[in-house]
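User: For a benchmark we're assembling, each entry needs the component sequences followed by a predicted structure for the full assembly. Here are entry 17's components. Please fill in the structure.
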Amino acid sequence: MTTSPRPRVALFVTCLVDLFRPTVGFAAVKLIEDAGCEVVVPAAQTCCGQPAFNSGDRKDAAELAKKVITAFEGYDFLVAPSGSCAGMIHAHYPSLFAEGDPWKARAEALAAKSHELVSFLTDVRGVTTTGARFVGSVTYHDSCSGLRELGIRAQPRKLLGAVEGLTLTELADADVCCGFGGAFAVKYSDLSGAIVDKKTEKVAATGAKTLLAGDLGCLMNLAGRLARKGSTIEVRHVAEVLAGMADGPAIAGAKTGGRG
Amino acid sequence: MKVTSPAFKANAREALADKTLQKALGNVESGFITKRAAAAAALPEFEALRDAARDLKTHVLRHLDLYLEAYEAKVVASGGQVHWAATAEDARRIVAGICKRLGAKTVTKGKSMITEEIALNDHLEAEGIRPVETDLGEYIIQLRGEHPSHIIAPAVHLTKEQVAGDFRRVHSHLEPGRDLSEPVTLLTEARTVLREEFLLADVGITGANFLVAETGTSIIVTNEGNGDLTQTLPKAHIVLASIEKIVPTLEDVDTLLRVLARSATGQEMSVYTTFSTGPRRDGDPDGPGEYHVVLLDNGRSKMLGTEFEEMLRCIRCGACMNHCPVYQQIGGHAYGWVYPGPMGAVLTPTLVGVDQAGHLPNASTFCGRCESVCPMRIPLPEMMRAWRTREWERALNPAALRSGLGAWAFVAARPGLYRLATRLASLALRVMGGGKGRIGRLPLFAAGWTANRDMPAPEGATFMDQWKARGGRTG
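Assistant: Structure for entry 17:
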């Protein structure tokens, strides 16, 4: 642990945020800086390797893990705006290497200082409010990896509760999967579609205008399904709201047109 | 039982389109989940009991040989017989042999998934012996010529209207105008019909929830009492159980019973918990003249010492499937063999081969809810992933997936190349999205995504490009 007053945080952007939702990356930078940290975005990062790991391709997963370890181990913390990618690094990287392999110890060391964004803010940095304002009703979906691998449940609710103008309506079965599951959504599309349908019905039942979650994979699945059904519910990453950066188009939303 | 797991995708599609099935599956969610949660919350030491239960079975599996031998000695000492069955075929042969020796015509059966695993009913029928299922759910599906769709609620895929129709068809000797509109009237009718069968049976076959090494006792838990009549009335009681059902002592059984019913149905205890030790002794008022235990391996001992060993802790409560978003959508039959849901996704590839059952460990979102409710803390997602690894190593996955993932991994391992690829992908997707911010149809592998949902278009240039353009720190 550093003795410097400003810990150096390496942002693990995640491949989905990088490609689809850069706003989440900038929101993360702002939130981490506001929490008194210095943010660096290591240029060598690509993906945490989950697609390979969950497809059973441990060799490629380990190769990608080594790249991430090398690029991130020199910082005080690794922070990712995703429970799923943070969970991969925190809970699974050490399992990719055999006992006695020097990479295992390095994976364990990185795992110990890797965090999901919102829980990093509350649990590591002691943030109680982000000073954001968001006028509207929202509901929150607990993404599975964050919830069950990292125990993230109270943290986003705590920070959302401190957002001025925001009303949070709890989602029934908020802890039930949205049906994303990475390649599952593509390989078993009908099944995934049926699961996300059930979820979007519950979202609609809350009456909230905006749906938030902490993982872009789930959010793209939910937003994509809601858009397909012609719903006006807006879908955003929780970091956008917490950073006061939720004024652009929502996920899968049109470029023009404000909040529905 | 024919394995239809290779057709999982088609099975699932059919299940999703089956309106009656979808209506019946609603009961899984409303019934089991709420009740389990309430039962777990009402017992302060529930989580500690789960730890104790896990540790107990882990210990047993480390010393399975010793406990099995000790168990056999106790069964023999109490006048029973133990038969070792390495394969399903061995078990069928042993059971049919006992029945034939006793001249059995009718055999009553308590609920047993092991008898499903070895397809015992078909075998007995082929030998001219009539098996009669006495658990209400099992009885119903036997009338329909089906298989269980859930390990503790075999007929959970049916509505009460369907069952009423079956009873009218099969119980044709009863008054046609009778009221069968409520579950209780159906239950009463089944009891009346089954009472005759209990009295007629020559042999009773049950499974076992636990086998106790300390005493040579087999234990079943039921809610209907059918197991008791099955095992005490006929001339012989045959217990069919797999080798991992062993528990060292009666005290240990207590630990497992406390998590079993709560996890399964949300009950504190099942209505009947029946301990059987040996045949009828001199002076006993009732009980079977012969007591046999058929111990089935059928591939389980090969799981010991592998990444699948922990699956042998399973006590068959069904909580994993009740809480599984995939099972909730399609029910058990789509999985294509005896064991559905997450526990089936791990066990079925072991028992029928991953080449047959490869879909099952893949058809999971890895949401982890199964593991979070498993009373034995079995890491089900981790083991499904282990099956995926074995498939990958044996190159059993579709070639397109392997080459696609290989190409992606190659690019992802080269940040410069990756930046270029994502820059191009971002541009292409933004063009496709137009002003709408989303894409309705994508080609190739991504077509699976857009079949059921739109693809959000990228907001703008990639984060990494924007960060660089803004002069953000990169190291």
